[in-house]
Amino acid sequence: MPAASWLIVVWLSVIGAAIGSFINVVVWRVPRGKSLLEPPSHCPKCGHPIRCYDNVPIFGWVLLGGRCRDCRARISPRYPLVEAACFTSFLVLAILECGLQGVNLPVHREPGDEGIVLIVGRSGRELYGIFLFHQLLWCTLLAGGLIEYDGNRAGWRVYAPALGMAALAGSALPMLYPVPVWNGVEGWYAGMATSAAGLAAGTALGWLLSRWEPPARRNGVWLGLACVGGILGWQAVVGLAALTALWQLAAAVAGRRRVPASLALVVLCFAWLVAWANLVEWMPWLR
Ligand SMILES: [Zn+2]
Predict the structure, then answer these.
(1) What spacing in Å lies between the alpha carbon of 148 and ligand 1's midpoint?
(2) Does 284 lie in the same domain as 142?
(3) Number of neighbours of residue 1 by Cβ within 10 angstroms
């Protein structure tokens, strides 16, 4: 990977940590019906605004020893952990999808003349688009999963931007889908069919999985799988719904169902994105 690519990767990862900081705000404020913009971040104990130099993702918490600068109240280590998770997710996916030209993505094939199948490379702009599309999905899943982990209901508003982009991308940016709705589909409707089939499959299987969750935790896995379908396609929905069900089955057998299905989906979806090309080689029906 050239030095310029590394520079972009590091820059994207720092943006990722800042987005993690924003997700912390979303997880706390959205279930309480508070504005995301006003007031600026403040200590929940003493109400003092957090100084901008203390608000640096991860480092702010570490340098303050996990305490408020004004009243010394403990600040949960979850804040820097979420920021670190986002930093890592952006780092790994930016290396794979942007720096290494999408080695994790299924190979893009197009039917050529006389039965020859062409393997088509992706442009840099397409790869950055795919990376942002995938991070929109992953960050949405993370926000919804954490809201449900805290015992709150994940409203549709959390998922609306990802669902809206998924619905739009099918017609406007079909190159964001590495896997078509079925092999060899062509024409102006191909992207739309990919996005629509994914949204439909995610809504159906997500609803099915949500029946196995306590009522307060049903939205996350339902809307989350709808987002997975709209952004990664129906094949990923089938795979990730099965893996999430297995996760919850194992948790039930162990007698520990503390983690909502929506948060399990965050971990599984990241693994899916990293291993996608290998999964397709292993199970060709995912293509
Ligand atoms: Zn304080």
Answers:
(1) 26
(2) yes
(3) 12
Q: Which domain holds residue 115?
A: 104-287
CB atoms < 10 A from the CB of 85, how many?
Answer: 21
Q: How far is the CA of 70 from the centre of ligand 1 (A)?
A: 5
Backbone angles phi, psi at 177, to 5 degrees: -105, 110
Strands (E), 172-211: none
Q: Which residue has the tokens 């994105």?
A: 273
31-39 contact pairs (CB < 8 A, 24+): 31/147, 31/150, 31/152, 31/153, 31/154, 31/155
pTM of the model: 0.94
Same domain (yes/no): 143, 91? no
Report the separation in Å between the CA atom of 113 and the middle of ligand 1, taken as the mean of its atom positions.
Answer: 68
CA of 255 to the centre of ligand 1 (A): 38
End of a domain among 50, 66, 100? 100
Q: In this predicted model, what pLDDT tens digit does every residue of 1-35 receive, in sequence order?
A: 888 889 999 999 999 999 999 999 999 999 999 99
In this structure, the answer to whether residues 59 and 158 fall within a common structural domain is: no
Question: Can you tell me the distance from the alpha carbon of 122 to that of 117, in angstroms, rounded to the nearest whole number?
Answer: 16
